[in-house]
Write a structure and sequence with these properties.
The structure is a single chain. With 502 residues, the chain is α+β, with helices and mostly antiparallel strands. Among the domains are: 96 residues, no CATH class; 182 residues, no CATH class; 62 residues. It is built from 20 helices and 10 strands. The strands form 3 sheets. Strands 1, 2, 3, 4 and 5 form a 5-stranded antiparallel sheet that branches. Helix 12 packs antiparallel against helix 17. The longest helix has 27 residues. The N and C termini lie far apart (65 Å).
């Protein structure tokens, strides 16, 4: 996509928002500062008839639906934050999750047969009309020849071209933000956009989604918080995915939270703990946990679908995440600050004590208060001010984690308005801390480091020396290796005995 075409589409999207009075809606005017009020009134001079139809969320949903997959993804994210934008606004955006206009069943069947390379009767006895249609694909109920009830996901015709156009617009928007708003550079908009684009590209190949579902399903099975459908590999292709039918009702259904026997408190806790257990214990997590992708059943069963975006964390990121959460749980702000500096999240030239003080100013007002009494919007605004004050840059590798954590909290709050994220996280975080930072874990880490060092020395011993170098003959090296092995073993035994005696 050329820069001119991207600019044309970007300005077109902005104009559509203005015409629908969805950029600075009139309903928000009482909450805005004078400058924003003036800007909103000027923009409404150009508003069209669509600006008079429906609430702000309905107007925004109509605009985003016409703009393509990337814009729809933005609307899905906004719909999870009823605590920030209000319940009516969030509910008006819910249709973007799985209630978009579907494409015909005949086209879906032709695409399934073409992609799987077999006549449909060899795999399915029946394929029904679509039951959900989202930005990239739609889902059909079906029955396999062996009698299993399944859901068949099929990509929308031409969606790859739409996503390619969207990526050009996103890249242009990021470049303009860095040029026109220098303060945004610390948020690394171009790197953020590349993370989003990469996620969208992976969603275009449903074979990756099948693999992600199978891998995450194995991880979820180790806890009772959340589950995944089984992959039916005979029905998987680049543009087709077949999973066993998810039991329950989608959370995007208005009747889901009124199911008989539903324990809303336990359900909200399972959503939060399921996500955290995935991220901390396994280093991978479902990164698109909005209501349309969560099926619930009484009393508190949660089944996640749509594994197009799977986030991954390395050992370092998992440790930092756990220690930061653990620090907040224990209100140890000095430790939280230290972790931020150790991880490089805050530049070394900043004042560590001042940063700890700023964290305390954000954290303390939240503890001991009912969730419904805490303004998440105000809390996020305070955190944003702190990141600016201490030159904290956005971490691209943590973008999906941060986005998913915000989404998960929004979903949990919608299930249970009194949901306490910290209380829900407590058992998962403490379990990780006890396992990974216990004395036994430290001994294990010490032994692994010693083993890696010995292997490196062994490789050095096996490497033929250069002719011009002075070297130690191998017969002299092996006694040294055995000495190091003995020393390492004795050291590990000593440390173990010392720790266990305390």
């Amino acid at each position: 996509m050329t820069s001119f075409s991207a600019f044309f589409r970007l300005t077109g999207a902005g104009w559509a928002l203005v015409r629908a009075d969805a950029l600075i809606p009139r309903e928000a005017e009482p909450l805005l500062p004078p400058s924003a009020k003036l800007a909103g009134r000027l923009l409404r001079l150009f508003a069209g008839g669509a600006a008079k139809r429906g609430r702000p969320g309905e107007r925004l949903a109509r605009v985003l639906e016409r703009q393509g997959p990337a814009a729809i993804k933005l609307g899905q994210f906004l719909s999870t934050r009823a605590d920030i934008f209000g319940t009516p606004f969030a509910e008006d955006l819910l249709r973007l999750k799985d209630r978009l206009p579907p494409f015909p069943l005949s086209i879906a069947k032709a695409e399934i047969a073409r992609n799987l390379g077999k006549p449909l009767p060899e795999i399915f006895t029946e394929i029904g009309e679509p039951v959900a249609a989202a930005s990239l694909a739609q889902a059909h109920p079906a029955t396999l020849v062996d009698g299993r009830e399944v859901a068949v996901k099929v990509l929308r015709p031409g969606v790859e071209r739409q996503v390619a156009r969207d990526t050009g617009v996103l890249r242009l928007a990021a470049r303009l933000a860095e040029t026109l708003a220098p303060a945004s550079r610390r948020l690394r908009p171009t790197e953020f956009v590349e993370v989003v684009i990469r996620a969208l590209e992976l969603e275009m190949d449903l074979r990756f989604e099948a693999a992600g579902c199978a891998e995450l399903g194995e991880a979820m099975a180790k806890d009772a918080y959340m589950r995944a459908p089984a992959v039916c590999w005979e029905g998987v292709g680049k543009r087709v995915l077949t999973l066993t039918w998810a039991q329950g009702v989608p959370l995007s259904d208005a009747a889901a939270l009124d199911l008989p026997g539903l324990d809303r408190k336990a359900l909200a806790e399972n959503v939060t703990r399921g996500f955290l257990a995935q991220a901390l214990d396994h280093g991978l997590f479902h990164a698109d946990l909005h209501e349309g992708n969560l099926f619930v059943a009484a009393p508190a069963s949660v089944t996640a679908v749509d594994y197009g975006i799977v986030g991954r964390l390395g050992p370092g990121e998992r440790r930092y995440l756990a220690e930061i959460l653990y620090g907040f749980l224990n209100r140890d702000y000095a430790r939280i600050a230290q972790v931020h500096f150790d991880a490089g999240y805050v530049p070394a030239h900043q004042d560590k004590d001042a940063f700890a003080q700023a964290l305390r100013a954000v954290g303390e007002p939240v503890f001991g208060r009912n969730a419904r009494d805490v303004s998440m919007g105000r809390l996020l605004a305070q955190l944003f001010e702190i990141t600016a004050l201490f030159d904290m840059a956005l971490r691209p590798e943590l973008v999906l984690l941060q986005k998913t954590m915000v989404t998960v909290e929004g979903v949990a709050r919608r299930i249970d308005p009194t949901h306490d994220l910290w209380a829900a996280a407590d058992p998962v975080v403490r379990r990780w801390i006890g396992r990974e930072l216990s004395p036994a874990a430290k001994v294990r880490d010490f032994a692994e480091e010693a083993l890696r060092a010995l292997r490196a020395i062994a490789r050095l011993a096996e490497t033929p020396p250069a002719k011009t170098e002075i070297h130690v003959e191998r017969p002299h090296v092996w006694p040294l290796l055995w000495f190091l092995v003995g020393a390492a073993t004795a050291g590990a035994a000593f440390v173990t005995g010392l720790l266990l005696s305390r």
